[in-house]
Amino acid sequence: MRFTAEHHAFRKVVRDVVEREIVPHVDQWERDGIFPAHELFPKLGEVGLLGLEYDPKWGGQGADHLFTVVACEEIARSGCGGVPMAIGVQTSMATPSLHEFGSDMLKERYLAPAIAGTMVTSIAVTEAGAGSDVRSLRTKAVRDGDEWVINGSKLYITNGTQADWICLLARTSEEGGYRGMSQILVPTDTPGFSVSRKLDKLGQRSSDTAELVFQDMRVPVDHTIGEIGRGFQQQMSQFVIERMFAAYGAVGSCRRALERTRDYLKQREAFGQPLMANQHIAYSMAELSAEIDLLQSHNYACAEAHMNGEDTTRYATVAKLTSGRLTRKVADLCMQYHGGIGYMEETWTSRYFRDSRLGSIGGGADEVMLQVLAKLDGFTA
Amino acid sequence: MNIVVLVKQVPDTWAERKLDATDKTLDRASVDVVMNEIDEYAVEEALRIQADQGGEVTIVSMAPDRGVETIRKALSMGADKAVHLSDPALHGSDAVQTSYALAKVLGTLEYDLVIAGSEATDSRMAIMTPLLAERLGQPQLSGARKVTVDGGTVRIERQTDNGYDVVEASTPAIVSVVEKINEPRYPSFKGIMAAKKKPLTTLTLADAGIEADRVGLASAPSQVVEFSNKPPRQAGQIVKDEGDGGVKVAEYLASQKLV
Ligand SMILES: Cc1cc2nc3c(=O)[nH]c(=O)nc-3n(C[C@H](O)[C@H](O)[C@H](O)COP(=O)(O)OP(=O)(O)OC[C@H]3O[C@@H](n4cnc5c(N)ncnc54)[C@H](O)[C@@H]3O)c2cc1C
Questions:
Q1: A242 given a catalytic annotation
Q2: Cβ of B245: how many Cβ atoms within 10 Å?
Q3: Is the pLDDT of residue A1 over 80?
Q4: Which of A171, A205, A229 lies at the terminal end of a domain, its last residue?
Q5: DSSP label at residue A373
Q6: Which are the contacts of B10, defined by CB distance < 8 A and separation ≥ 6?
Q7: If you placed Cys at A181, which of A93, A157, A232, B107 could pair as Cys (CB 3.0 to 4.6 Å)?
Q8: Does ligand 1 come within 6 angstroms of the Cβ of A204?
Q9: Are B192 and A13 a contacting pair at CB < 8 A?
């Protein structure tokens, strides 16, 4: 890849920011079940982390995509899955459609503050009855003059309790299926918007996850992102960016977990020698290290294709599938070789183990990736 | 207000730092290097004074080729330009020789203020600014936790054990800062990209008018005669509390002359 001295310099800055502004606070945030996005995001915004590839007109950096790769790999070294996921929502899940399809009015009012980190954002697609099957979603926006009147609810929404606006996917016609959906930008201070529950969950505990309810919520039609009726398609391309973020990050988190486990095994003795001297352990670590390399190479190929303007759906799908599975394997092995202490809450491995499980479920489950891939490759009857 | 900031590249504080067995100098090649931490505060302070008073901030660093990385970092924080003194003949220079070389470089520049960190994490001598002040015949204000510039006067709060002293001098002056002084900014993406295009002048000994026989290991006034690794830490003494734990701890502290 064409990493330059500037990419390396930026990597160091991101690592410093992560080590100073995130890592020292993670234990507290995990206990709190939330991290203070309105405190952290402006700091990230100042460094340029929240709008790397976005147009400088809106405060973006106009950076090439490799800076995003670098940022994802480093942010994933935060010592938890929750905060990186929340940052990812801001940079790669809730804002790409707005940047690509949104009007200048929307960008000025909502994208620029999101890039600066002064506004926190959410992506709201999933519903109780529509997760993997996005076509089944029922939240409805009915047009009344210049306004949408929105009713429905969304589930498992990251940043949901502290977002200033959400990128909502809703039905705007009766066509059904994937037709007739639109992406609507909803400010959370709109009357009729409420957070009905903050959800308790296995992992990613520093990230708040919410159920949102909309009751006769009126939003101007000019808050539609892109074209009315093209919401599903726009969301599908937004998902591709999201999956790339997840896969790039997995390399950073897996690599760091192996490094930490290696350091532990070098000093932990059993049977008169460090555990690391055990060949069975060494080889299984080496095997995972090789797999991380392969994922990274695949990620870089994906990044290059993206930079060449190619459709990266296939790359991103393979990357997301691979990264979810690999993260689980790495977390399981780190836990295993730490033994009892690894199972204790005081050791990082227990959080990592919990957090690692989401990758294969969120942002499109492994099976959904396989479904996409099977279709792309013609494994259909 | 033109300010020069002295910046040193040092081995990463977290890395295992070693001396090279062959010539007993610091092994800089085999470790990760970073900007000496306190120097980040020096750069930050210069940038804040500049924001208030205008002028230019120039980075000066004496370092092997690799020092460019650290200089670029200072530029990406916002400094305007840099001078890199780099010559193989400088290898092994001690503090006295380094101050001679840096004074020569400073002699080629016009400035009102030189700002430096109070010490470097590798040598920990905290002696560079006094040496420079002596050589340049300029006042030095050391250990600043606050700097204010008012026309031709620079005033600092010098950190002391139980408070601070206010010390003042006329410019040009040499100031060293401590970590209390500010919170250094992170270089931003834009800063990194801008740093690429900022002027960076590389000087050899000849360029800076430095006499070759006054620098380098062979002529260093101080010589490292011998070195050895720190002995491994001894296992601590465990006192089991059988009702007399407090007494035993007190006895131990007394035996170590700590109470
Ligand atoms: C912590 C967390 C944060 C989240 N954040 C957000 C967010 O910010 N915004 C948002 O919109 N959503 C969010 N989600 C929702 C997430 O994207 C969905 O949970 C995910 O898409 C799966 O949908 P589901 O939960 O409805 O599972 P279901 O669709 O009910 O699927 C259950 C399981 O069935 C299997 N399965 C599904 N489809 C197929 C198939 N075609 N073939 C074979 N097997 C299949 C898979 O194993 C899947 O895990 C979040 C979820 C979690 C847990």
A1: yes
A2: 11
A3: no
A4: A229
A5: H
A6: B33, B34, B35, B36, B120, B121, B122
A7: A232
A8: yes
A9: yes
Check if A371 has its Cβ closer than 6 Å to any atom of ligand 1: yes
Q: Which helix (H) or strand (E) is A231 found in, with range?
A: helix A231-267
ipTM: 0.93
User: How does pLDDT run across A83-103, given as a tens digit for each residue?
Assistant: 999 999 999 999 999 999 999
* Containing structural domain, residue B98: 3-219
Total domains, chain B: 1
List the domain range (segments joined by +) for residue A186. 122-229
Q: How do B57-62 and B3-6 pair as beta strands? A: parallel
Q: Cβ(B98)–Cβ(B202) under 8 Å?
A: no
The pLDDT tens digits for B135-177 are 999 999 999 999 999 999 999 999 898 899 999 999 999 999 9
Q: Please give the Cα distance from A49 to A74 (Å, whole number).
A: 11
Question: CA A371 to CA A378: how far, in whole Å?
Answer: 11
Q: Is the minimum distance from the CB of A357 to ligand 1 under 6 angstroms?
A: no
State the CATH number of the domain containing residue A106.
1.10.540.10
The reply to whether A208 falls in a domain is yes
Average pLDDT over residues A297-319: 97
User: Is A344 exposed, middle or buried (CB count within 10 Å of its CB: 0-12, 13-18, 19+)?
Assistant: exposed
CB spacing of A13 vs B193 below 8 angstroms: no
Measured distance CA(A75)–CA(A22) in Å, rounded: 9
Tell me the average pLDDT of chain A: 97
